[in-house]
Every structure is written in structure tokens, then in C-alpha cells.
Amino acid sequence: MEAVASAAAVSKRTLYQRHSTKEELMQAVVEDRVRTWADDATARNSDLPDAFRERMICHAKTMMHSLGDPEVRQFDRLILQTAAQFPGIALTFYNIGYSYELQFLTDEIIRGTRDEPPPARRPKLIAQQLCSMILGWRRTEETVREIDPDEAAQFAVEAVNVLFKGRDNW
What we know:
mainly alpha
């Protein structure tokens, strides 16, 4: 806490008045960073196409791009490593990060299948599957190599294509 106070150019007392524990401070940092990343993702999605499949491809590419950000990768690893010790921080990361993205994609699927029938029977499951494909591939591959942004974007496109090929099962 002393190092954080020094880096922030505030007294330790001021820091403790705002965040009484290390966990509370870390939670505030996670909330701030995830909101910043969400704002960046929203900016990347500002000019979306009208066609449902193309919208989903844009969202998948944005998610893939965001997950490739070095800061996001570091936070992701930190959360995975400390989740058992700090479950509140992991839950915050889950709620304002993953759950937000999941709900956003679910809403897009509901909207998209309303405009292009048949409607999805399980839109949240489809959103979870897309997130899992992208996050799982990215985490697995990054354990052994650097991922080229073009390769990541192509994987995002193919993930959406796989989902759309199974659309009769939605």
C-alpha cells in the first residue's frame, strides 16, 4: 500500500481512507480497467454493419482484439492465479467483464434472429459458445506462442462461421 500511495502521490492515510484493504484497492483497479477496456471495445464497434452475421463477426473480432491487449492479458492471468485467494476480485472481473460481454452478445443474437428468423431458442448459450471459442483458443495458443493479429481476426471470423453453420440448432 505504501508503494501504491507513493506512485499515486498521495499519503498512505489518504489511500486507506479510500480503500481500506488491498483487496478493496485491487477491486477498484479492476473495475476501472474493465470499464476502460469496455469503452475501447465500444469505440471499435461504433460503425457496425446491418447484417446479423457481419455484426457478429465485428463483435468477435473486437473481443479477440481486446483479449490480445497486453494489459488485458496480464489482468486475465492475475485473476486466474489469485481467484482462490481473492474470490471477490475474480467475481468483479467476471461480472463487469465477462457477464457484460455475454449479455451484450445475447442481446445481439436476440435482435439479429428477430430480424433474420428463425429466432434463437437459447441465445445466451450461443453467446457463451462464441466467447468460449475465442477465449479458449486465445488462452491456449498464448501459452506457447505470440499470436499474429491477422490470425486472431481470422479465427474470430471462423468461430462465427461455425456457429452460423449450426444455426438450425440455436
